[in-house]
TrEMBL record:
Gene Ontology MF terms: RNA binding; structural constituent of ribosome
Matching Gene3D superfamilies: 3.30.1430.10, Ribosomal protein L3, domain 3 (4.10.960.10), Translation factors (2.40.30.10)
Listed Pfam families: Ribosomal_L3
Cellular component terms per the entry's GO annotation: cytosolic large ribosomal subunit
Source organism of the structure: Effrenium voratum
PANTHER family for the chain: 60S RIBOSOMAL PROTEIN L3-RELATED, LARGE RIBOSOMAL SUBUNIT PROTEIN UL3
Region spans: Disordered: 1-37
Similarity annotation: Belongs to the universal ribosomal protein uL3 family.
Official protein name in the record: Ribosomal protein L3
Keyword Coiled coil: yes
Domain of life: Eukaryota
PROSITE patterns named among the record's database cross-references: RIBOSOMAL_L3 (PS00474)
Keywords (A to Z) from UniProt: Coiled coil, Ribonucleoprotein, Ribosomal protein
Gene Ontology BP term (one): translation
Length: 670
């Protein structure tokens, strides 16, 4: 098989060595077309951005070919090409060692995106670049022609003139603010004509149609798509070894002889693949399209009169919409989407029949490039689906309106809650009702049910129903005036509300009903139907009461029954003081203590207890005590689960007491 080394030792040219990551990320033009002074001055290159690919249908015009007058489908690449801006020129002189830059002239005003290219970090800098040039231009404009000395020097000594151009990167959505700058050679005419041509383009836009034309064959320069580190089978296309090969089969078995004691550069080796600088020649221009602003139907043809733009449905994948001028090239273009591609005029004149063929497009595909698109435009899709699509849009709109309404309702409730907190705070600071805005006073909110619900939830958690005191209140007739309403206050029962010092006072006749209501809400949660009944039965009022001991006004909340005028009060009032009995009878006192059933000491955190749940007792560790409610970590609970139960349903762990007693007896016997 020694002949194989002469036929196909590898796939891949050695002329592209070394295959490493390029330093010229934006495509360097290493050669420009030969200058022809007989032609008028013109630019020889342009910068574009790769948007994506699609396909077209055209009729072949090639007499003698089997495809003549037949339709074919071909892949094409779309390059978005916003106008470039000329901001200067450089003059070169020819030397025995090549071109040498002699002088350069910059325009008087440079855009921010152009100046950003000269800064590594734009933010926080003084932005002094080109300020001296601007000053020279402003001074020269008063005296005469600006930059006259440099211009005359270039006209006298230079043989090559290259314009300094930058892209308008803000017009394309590639997530970049720095413009791409490149020197583009001016060909045609004498040196004086080239300099005047470049000077006249200063701070002016140059469109793609000014450099190239349809059916022209051009070259493209760019960087290929990076693939990372690859092996020899992928990188060089070598044949895999047999299945039973030792220590791998996707490799080169012999990489060279013993001597010379080095690996020859011709031997395939693994390494970087992709992200190489490449120049591809003879790419034919099928169409140069205008921007969406100038031609909204820039993808229309003589055979396809549909009003559509070049952007496919849903946009080009990973790129978006094409809104600026664009150019359509036959076939593929190196690099990923959004990468800069440099277009250059062909170095050699094209004389082949394919290069000179006139292209007539019949159809340009604009269906979705994400999957298998069926429709060319949104109107076509809507017409096909008809009522189904309209119904889907209606349901989507209704869903959006419903979500918006729920969001607004949540915002209103949050605003009402903030107003309630502000009102209570102002009243706690002793503010009179006249200085409290009406919109945050009790009972004046848009949704009084929300305010009553907040009060109800707090009472359920804070009320100590085991500790109660009965007292008599009111004037001689047992009536008071609260907020212009008549309120009946007779014999009342008061309960402590947490550690805040506030008390809940209810009429003695309603003690059983309210106690049952709070207990049920604590066990099962608040019932919405019960809350509706409360709102329709009770009215929420705010007032100030004067304590008998302090003599100072304190804020209070009144729930007044709409029919009977009985009131439930939340305030520090009344200040009930402890009064010892008038006489002490030791015999009666000790008889009462003896006859009373023994009571267990209240458990504390850390005790081993048993808690009743659905008629069964479960052993666990007491975590905390909050009023009449305890939190127990049962032994059968999953990690992170806490059992909440009333304190009445908790007792000491009897099983563990018996076990401890057995242990004590065993130790005494031993």
């Amino acid at each position: 098989m020694s002949h194989r080394k002469f036929e196909r030792p590898r796939h891949g040219s050695l002329g592209f060595l070394p295959r490493k990551r390029t330093r010229h990320h934006h495509g360097k033009i290493k050669s420009f077309p030969k200058d022809d002074q007989a032609k008028p001055p013109h630019l020889t290159a342009f910068m574009s951005y790769k948007a994506g690919m699609t396909h077209i249908v055209r009729e072949v015009d090639r007499p003698g070919s089997k495809l003549h007058k037949k339709e074919i489908v071909e892949p094409v690449t779309i390059l978005e090409s916003p106008p470039m801006v000329v901001v200067g020129f450089v003059g070169y002189v020819e030397t025995p060692r090549g071109l040498r830059a002699l002088t350069s002239v910059w325009a008087g005003h440079l855009s921010e995106e152009c100046k950003r290219r000269f800064y590594k970090t734009w933010k926080g800098r003084k932005h002094k670049a080109f300020t001296k040039y601007e000053k020279r231009w402003s001074e020269a404009s008063k005296e005469g022609t600006p930059m006259q000395a440099e211009v005359e020097r270039a006209k006298k000594y230079c043989q090559v003139i290259r314009a300094i151009c930058h892209t308008q990167v803000r017009k394309v959505k590639i997530g970049q603010k720095k413009a791409h700058i490149k020197e583009i050679q001016v060909n045609g005419g004498t040196t004086e004509q080239k300099v005047d041509f470049a000077m006249n383009l200063f701070e002016q836009e140059v469109k793609i149609a000014d450099c190239f034309s349809q059916d022209e064959t051009i070259d493209i320069v760019g960087t290929t798509k990076g693939k990372g580190f690859n092996g020899v089978v992928t990188r060089w296309g070598v044949t895999r070894l047999v299945r039973k090969s030792h220590r791998g089969l996707r490799k080169v078995a012999c990489i060279g002889s013993w001597h010379p004691a080095r690996v020859s550069f011709q031997v395939p080796r693994s390494g970087q693949r992709g992200y190489h600088h490449r120049t591809e020649i003879n790419k034919k221009i099928y169409r140069i399209g205008k921007s969406l602003k100038d031609d909204p139907a820039n993808a229309r043809t003589d055979n396809d009169l549909t009003e559509k733009a070049i952007t496919p449905m849903g946009g080009f994948s990973h790129y978006g919409e094409v809104n600026e001028d664009w150019v359509m090239l036959k076939g593929t273009v190196m690099g990923p989407r959004k990468r800069l591609i440099t277009l250059r005029k062909s170095l050699l004149p094209q004389v082949s029949r394919k290069a000179l063929e006139k292209v007539t497009l019949k159809f340009i595909d604009t269906s979705s490039k994400f999957g298998h698109g069926r429709f060319q435009t949104s109107e076509e899709k809507a017409k096909f689906f008809g009522a189904a699509l309209k119904k889907a849009k209606t349901e989507k709109a209704e869903k959006a309106e419903k979500e918006e309404a729920e969001q607004l309702k949540a915002e209103v409730q949050a605003a009402q809650f903030r107003a309630q907190q502000l009102r209570l705070r102002l009243q706690a600071l002793g503010a009179d009702a006249s200085v409290v805005p009406k919109k945050i006073q009790a009972g004046s909110l848009v949704d009084p049910q929300y305010e009553l619900r907040s009060l109800y939830e707090w009472l359920v958690q804070a009320a100590h129903l085991q500790r109660q005191v009965v007292f008599e209140c009111g004037n001689g007739e047992g009536e008071v005036q609260v907020g212009g309403r008549r309120v009946v206050l007779h014999r009342m029962v008061t309960w402590q509300l947490g550690e805040s010092g506030l008390k809940l006072s209810v009429p003695l006749e309603l003690q059983a009903e309210i106690s049952k209501m709070l207990t049920d809400a604590r066990r099962r949660g608040i019932d919405e139907a019960e809350l509706q009944r409360l709102c329709s039965t009770w009215e929420l009022l705010g007032a100030e009461v004067v304590s008998a001991s302090m003599g100072m006004p304190e804020p209070a909340i009144f729930l007044v029954h709409r029919q009977t005028a009985q009131a439930v009060v939340v305030a520090k009032w009344p200040a009930v003081e402890f009064r010892p009995p008038p006489s002490f009878d030791p015999q009666t006192h000790f008889r009462r203590l003896i006859s009373r059933s023994p009571q267990n000491a209240q458990p504390i955190a850390g005790d081993r207890v048993e808690v009743e749940y659905e008629g069964r007792w479960f052993t666990g560790t007491l975590q905390s005590v909050e009023g009449d409610v305890v939190n127990v970590k049962c032994d059968v609970d999953s990690p992170g689960v806490i059992t909440v139960a009333p304190i009445a349903s908790v007792r000491p762990a009897r099983r563990e007491e018996r076990r401890d007693a057995r242990h004590r007896r065993a130790r005494s016997f031993s």
